[in-house]
Amino acid sequence: MGVMLRLIHRGLALAVVLPLMVLVLSGAVLSVIPAWERAGAISPDSMSVADLAGRIAHRYPGVEQIKRLTSGKIIAFYSGTAGPAASVVDPSSGKPVSDYVRSPFERWMTNLHRSFFLSDGGRMAAGASAFAMLVLALSGLQMTARRMGGWRHVLGRSRGGGMQRLHTDLGRLAAVGLVLSAMTALYLSLTTFGLIPDGTAQLSAFPSVTSSGPALPVEQIEALRGIDLSQLRELTFPNAANPNDLFHLVTAAGEGYVDPASGEMLGWQDNSVARQIYEFIYMLHTGQGLWWLGLLLGVSALGVPVLGLSGAVVWSSRKHAHAPITDNVPAKEADTVILVGSEGGSTWGFARTLHAALTANGHRVHAAPMDSLLRSYPSTQRMFVLTATYGDGAAPATAGAFLKRLDAITTPPPFPVAVLGFGDRQFPQFCQFARDVEAALARKGSRSLIPLDTIDRQSAQEFARWGKALSDVMGEDLVLIHVPERPRTDMLTLIERIDYGAEVQAPTCVLRFALPGRGMFARLMGHGWPRFAAGDLIAVLPPDCNLPRYYSLASSTRDGFVEICVRKHPGGLCSGLLHGLQPGDKIEAFVKANPAFRPAHGRKPVILIGAGTGIGPLAGFVRANGGCQPMHLYFGGRDPASDFLYEREIDDWLGEKRLTSLTTAFSRVKGGGYVQDRLRGDADRLRALITNGAQIMVCGGRDMAADVMQAVAEVLAPLGLTPVALKAQGRYVEDVY
């Protein structure tokens, strides 16, 4: 389904790019006209049609028709000295404001928008383009929902490079306007060709004059006195040369004729339901009568060219990432098959490394996307499935149809299969799709070549370890040395550092870097420093190393700096580099989004639990808590005299109500302990908070996180809850290293 959506979305965009651009740009121009006309309209508080007609008739004795535009402007058509003329009039006095001439530019732009100057054929093309825009908008929304991990996350923070985020964010903003414009355009197109009734109907018969005598002054005609000016569409005066002629009145409710002698309404006909629907949809599409909506739709339309450009850049980058593998043999000749499920392209890099190693050992290897799964591979002796996970456990771009294709195969594969998952342990559905593939193969009776394994954050070391295990199984020397493509980075300059922990043999520092400066174009092309929030990750690249080290961010874009907490590890390449920095020194780094580790929006309490440098992102959450959402911090360290990170800031946050409460545990002081001990001691309060919907957020080392989970499980037991149950609700999240 996901692959099909992408093919439809991309193919349709390429097929209709030119007419669609003309349609949306001309529509954006026309959307300004209702607001422009509204700005020049003079609208009295209340006035009857009779009063208006009387004032205009006295000012223009030869008046033939009065029109009220949807903007509120009143137009009088009359016989002037040089022939037919029209004026915009002030309804309160009947005096002329200006001559009325419809803009040739507006007529030209309207014809371009409706028919491309091609009569009925052009109208059909415009309708088809509107349909294409509807499909593009809906398919784009569906793909966004999949990418964000489901419809409940569709409004969450977007991920990816600059162009990918621009495409996603702009698409979400413009989607409602584009869907509304496309649906109303389709309706109007169908009414143009009579496929849907527009409710237009003539009065059954021209009524006869019911009285004789002189015509009443128009301001005294009772039928017109009962109609407010706001309801008027048109009032056509009777022909003075024809004593049997009548006033023709058109209002928002219907139309009829008025006897000029008796003042009675003759032959009135209400608008049909079909006509009311037509006029409502026409108003929605054009903004005539809703000028502010017209402007919003116009702004949405202007997003289409940008969406087209950003989509093309994203597609091009993905195509480059999926470049063909050299020495790839046809599937029917291969003794080894590698199937790849990739979203951004990085998994293909690992597939190339595996392909090259197997080929060097004399194997005939075929690599292809997982969606290319065949019913049979006549020469194959083994298969590898290397797959990432997309969003909330879904299939990545090149594997959307894999499970359905596998389900259609009735016999189990005659060869063993090895599944290797790629992902990020920070996310709750780490390698979930790989696990789903492994389970589906098992249900088919497939034999496992090697147990399912996973690679965290594109780790070359873990991939090499997997290669060693594979070598033992295959009985051959298979060395998998994967050199990941060096990611694009920025240079960050250290502006401040605060050191802690030297006295307790745990040197730790808080490092603050200046944001790198980049131009707008560079940011749009994905080359700039992206938006980030506390809890996201900064990847630092040591010199002469392509493998990044990740640190949780303690700041957000709004703070105007990049901040991390780093403990120095003996022999640690990156931590040693960072601890050796002095203000003015630079590092290479990039940001990686971590949307799964965020405080929930709203007023529900948040329980923050961290030890050591794990306080970093938690401090960032508190710093950003300008709305004073209840936040309760549990922090563990060794000695408050040496490693109480953020002590001064925490005091300030408590005073500002950004932080509701603080509970500490320092293990190397008298009466100390660990943070999990404080949780057990606060069991009653914690249970009350959790009963009120509190979210628990844990950040720190893996051992500490395991101890905290055990303590929380004991606290939750009387409530009949477990940390696993809270995780399923998004109320227990971890950032563990």
Q: Largest beta sheet: what is the strand line-up?
A: 4-3-2-1-5-6-7-8
How many domain regions?
Answer: 5
Global morphology: elongated
CATH topology of the largest domain: Rossmann fold
Low-confidence segments, given as residue ranges, are 519-527
- Kindly state the percentage of residues in helix: 25-40%
Verbal overview:
Helix content is 39%, strand content 20%. By secondary structure, the protein is of the alpha/beta class. The strands form four sheets. It has an eight-stranded antiparallel beta sheet with strand order 4-3-2-1-5-6-7-8, covered by helices on one side. Residues 519-527 have low confidence and may be disordered.
Please describe the structure with a list of short key phrases separated by commas or semicolons.
alpha/beta, Rossmann fold, eight-stranded antiparallel beta sheet, 737 residues, six-stranded antiparallel beta sheet, 23 helices
